Model the fold of this input.
Amino acid sequence: MAELAFEGVSKVFADGTEAVRDFNLDVGDGELMILVGPSGSGKSTALRMLAGLEDATAGTIRIGSRVVNDIAPKDRDIAMVFQSYALYPHMDVAANMGFALKMQRTPREAIAERVGAAAQRLGLSDLVSRRPRALSGGQRQRVAVGRAIVREPQAFLMDEPLSNLDAKLRVEMRAYLARLRQELGTTTVYVTHDQVEAMTMGDRVAVMRDGHLEQCDRPQVLYDRPANLFVGGFIGSPEMNFARGHLESVDGDVDLVLGGQRLRLHSHLPDAVLMRAGEPVVVGIRPETLSYLPPGVDSDHAIEAPVVLVESLGSDLLVHCELDAPAVFTEDQLEVAQEVGGATAVDEVRARFTARLEPGLRLAAGDRVRLAVDLDRAHFFDPDTTLALR
Done:
């Protein structure tokens, strides 16, 4: 096992595309670090630089105490698991798993012992004589993982290894890989675009966008204390609701004004929020912090809105509402909205709110619903810098 580090690493391709810029990240010995972000965020490029499959344009990459910028991939003592499995179709499972050891001229007896132990751990003992075409997707992925395990490397690098699997198998393999990594205790860097995968598997999660590290912390910290609007919107499913509003001082208290509605803020909220009376803010409210208010129940921290869609998940009811307040878009959402409706239309778009409610409620599109907001768990952002107000 080993510590891994990126120190001021950048990658600029020949056509001038800057895929990664000034990237700094430390991965602890035995840690499972998740790199997550949308397509084009630079996460796979960062992983490939760590593996030696791409050269860093600037900065330093360390594996353990060694600077590995100029060390060939085969000499970095890492093992990589690819999205495409990359199995040799003419070899059986045992030969695929032991191929790297064979290339290292490891004795045949040692190869057989290590392949046998890995196959047993992965539940592949009965499949070692089969070719890849006779395996299911999940079995092929386990063979690819086994090929990495038998090498006993300092670190595992995994590039979206579950993205080719169907939803049910992906959930099963996610739990399997997490448990396996805990048993092995090997330092692992895992790339995914799936934030649910990131939240459920990682010791820490590094959120990337446009080649830049936005925030790195434990999954629960990212969820509870996002550093900016992008992280707040990216982490969580369903995603955080955003609306543009402003704060007003009223008789010593502070109200959050969203369109034609007012919510009384609690005095124990951070001063960075309460001291912005008279100024615009972006408020972020997670779907699970909204609760249904029956008719006749008063509250000074509730919103009322028409229902536009109801989705029943069995255990939950997702109620989508349209709020009388301007919508807020992250950069990628804004590009899509502008392509669809143009800049003028985007300015006039109302905020859509999703509430995760109890499944027994009888609600339908066209109804009006009142929702209590747990303001202690609301998030506030500066509309200009998009940074969280803390």
Notes: The longest helix spans residues 167-184. The longest strand covers residues 302-312.
